Amino acid sequence: MSGLFLRTSAPIVVTDPATAETIKYASNAFLATKVSFVNAIAALCEAVGADVSQVVLGMGYDPRIGAGFLRPGPGWGGSCSPKDTVALVRIADDAGYDLGLLKGVIAVNDEQQPVVAKAVRLADGSVQDKIVA
């Protein structure tokens, strides 16, 4: 059997190049989805007066969900998630499939940076001459 080898903490997967590429993109897109989802839940919690820390803690105890990538914050980024999510949307578009769910995940992430910037400004009044990391 010919193909690419994908080494993870799970057993080795032997597959073809298109499947290997899709596995990588889909995995990063799923993690990005969890981050965007929890940021949307954080916004909802703020709107209804719920404690997002408790909501996330409760969700994390569900073994089907797990606590990983369930921390509200500035969104997802890095070297892989942005390019991989866009690549997966493009692959779907090229195949004639509207991956609207992932487009929504990207939109939630794009909306998150101004939310965080506003929160930083409200916390101290100004970010001028400050380092934000």
List the helices and strands and how they pair.
Layout: E1 4-6, E2 13-15, H1 17-48, H2 52-60, H3 81-94, H4 100-124
Antiparallel strand pairs: 1-2
Helix pairs in contact: 1-3, 1-4, 3-4
Task: Describe the structure in your own words.
The chain has 133 residues and is mostly helical. The protein has a single domain, classed as N-(1-d-carboxylethyl)-l-norvaline Dehydrogenase, domain 2 (Orthogonal Bundle). The protein contains four helices and two strands; from the N terminus they run ββαααα. Helix 1 crosses helix 3 and helix 1 crosses helix 4. It starts with a strand and ends in a 9-residue tail after the last helix. 17% of the residues are buried.
CATH class: Mainly Alpha
What profile does the largest beta sheet have? 2 strands, antiparallel
Q: What is the number of helices? A: 4
Order of adjacent strands in the largest pleated sheet: 1-2
> Which range best describes the helical content: under 10%, 10-25%, 25-40%, 40-55%, 55-70% or over 70%?
55-70%
Q: What is the beta-strand fraction?
A: under 5%
C-alpha termini separation: 47 Å
Radius of gyration: 18 Å
Task: Give a quick summary of the entry.
This protein has helices spanning 17-48, 52-60, 81-94, 100-124; strands spanning 4-6, 13-15. It is mainly α and 133 residues long.
Salient structural properties:
133 residues; mainly alpha
